[in-house]
Fold this protein.
Amino acid sequence: MKPSTAGWLFAAPALTVISLFFGLPVIAALALSLTDFDIYALADLGNLRFVGLYNYIGLLQNPLFWKSLGNTLYFVIVGVPLSVAMSLGAALLLHSRLGKLKPFFRTAYFAPVVTTVVAVAVIWRYLFHTKYGLVNWLLSFVGIDAIDWLGDPTWAMPTIILFAVWKNFGYNMIIFLAGLQSIPEDLYEAARIDGAGTWKQFRHITLPMLGPVLLLVGILTMAGYFQLFAEPYVMTQGGPLESTKSVLYLMYEEGFKWWNLGNASAVAFLLFILMVATTSGLLWFARRKGIE
Amino acid sequence: MMRRSDFLFVVMLCITLLSTVSCTRKQDNREVVKFWAMGYEGEVVAQLLPEFERQNPGIKVELQQLPWLSAHEKLLTAFAGDSLPDVSPIGNTWIPEFIALGAIEPLDEEIAASQGFDVADFFPGVWDSGVVEGRAYAVPWYVETRLPFYRTDILRESGIAATPKSWDEWRTAMAAIKQHVGPERYAILLPLNEFEPLLSLAIQQPEPLLRDGGRYGNFRSAGFKQSLGFYKEMFEKKWAPVVTNNQISNVWDEFGKGFFSFYISGPWNIAKFKERLPPEQQDDWMTMPLPGPEGPGASLANGTSFVVFRNSPRKVAAWKLIEYLSTPETQAKFHALTGDLPPRRSPWRTPALANDAHAKAFGEQLERAVPTPKVPEWERIATEMRLIGEEVANGRMDVDEAATELDRRTDKILEKRRWMLDEAERTAAAS
């Protein structure tokens, strides 16, 4: 037996599972996105029409799609850097030798990750309540008027971003911590002997050494943030004035609320294309910078 | 050790065998009717089933409770997987959808064959929501219509002697209340995350909401524009706050504090206000029929209705269950347990309902109830109506723009339906 055949044999079970439970559904969804599958088609397949790219064209002409795409991009562009910066900051604090009560803070920062979104979102809704919320109460001491956090279209998305960042930064923090711990101590020692200060050490040792970890965290976070759904679903139901409706939320409504599975599949594929494009873009950027 | 485990094994085996035997012995020959029911009513209805099983010794009811949020999804999935129950109360607005699916069958024969099943006793508009093309597909179980709950004391303090009947009287009342309560509080709450307040105003107009047999939207009609204009006016004049229910967080509490004096809501809130408001405030609130353009007009008839699914092999037994749950006695009992409003008139004459001052307005309004357009796409159209209503309330669209946009969206949603209808006509013409 050739080694390559043996390799394929070993990989066969995994490949079968992947093609059966991932490949096949994806192809089926692609086929579905070219039809107008809805409840009429569910009743009788004779009512199914092949519509070609009509679903895609219809979506590209639908202002609601562009609005939800804009909301999703807003969430990703503001949320991802903020989330990564928060994670890195927290990891640096926990890694610092000056830090005290490290196990406590490590647990405290990680705790939001393991809590359920729904339960936490309910509490956040109270924290950000216009009249009785803790946040507005604290702001009132600084002389800031009450802000309608979840009810004002300009504030709803920032509140959701804040919530998502707080909820997720702990996970990346753990990855960064592992990355920081693997940087050899002698590099810092050599830098100190050469007279480098804290900032220079961070800039020229920590950041480059963390390059691959940063790339990994960036890609993971971005992929996750593109799939924004649970937070607006629980906190705002996509409102006010659809300012927190994400692409995935639109897909959910099209597919499972209105049963327009053809249209919903088209939304899913557009999101997929967008995510592949941005991830490849990030990888290309990283490769050019020589990280990987 | 070996012996003990052997002994244990034998004992376990005996227990298993015995229980199988006793199970088979206990297993009866009764026909099992699968019954899915949603929400709180689904829990409470269990208390009414033993009496049904006593009256019908040959039938056993297997009750499955579903949460409302996922009920629609579960029913559709069950339809796709051919695992629907025999009978279920479904939302009135879902009936056209399940007819389009071919999942439910007309009940006319059963109704005609049942002695003492008095169709005329049902509120006509409520009964009509289950009738499509002259055939009855559903039997109403409980109903709801939306009307204003109001603060009697604040109205009195604002100098409003009689409850408003027409929109003009209502305008005067709201202006007076706003004057009285000041800028921090409001006259009315119209939650922006619900389509019912706007729909309740719109359905009072003589023009239908859809035209040409449900082929196109009819929102550019003078009637709808008038309703939308009144809706807009309430926000513009600051009679209503621009908020959703999510931002209120506790409507009962806020109603008690007088944050708003009118609140358009459904019958479940009678029990809620009785429970949530302190005893000293219990005399300060009442319900009233929804004022109409020229006096009380047509009103919404929502709620749930029983249907029998087409593939059920136990239609006779399923119908018996519907018949039992629809008797005036059972409905009166059900009202006592849940506070839900019965869809037929005779239970309304029982002391519990006849003496309930808060329920009176609902009974009155149900006489004028009319069903919403019977097209499967209606819920989606109503949702678009809510979204457009929100734009209007925020001052981002004027009435004409909103009506045009709503018609445009509705026509797009109904595209498939038009194709279906045309297709059916073509096949009919060809044959």
Remarks:
- The domain at 30-144+301-366 of chain B is CATH 3.40.190.10 (D-Maltodextrin-Binding Protein; domain 2).
- Residues 21-25 of chain B have pLDDT under 50 and may be disordered.
- The radius of gyration of chain B is 25 Å.
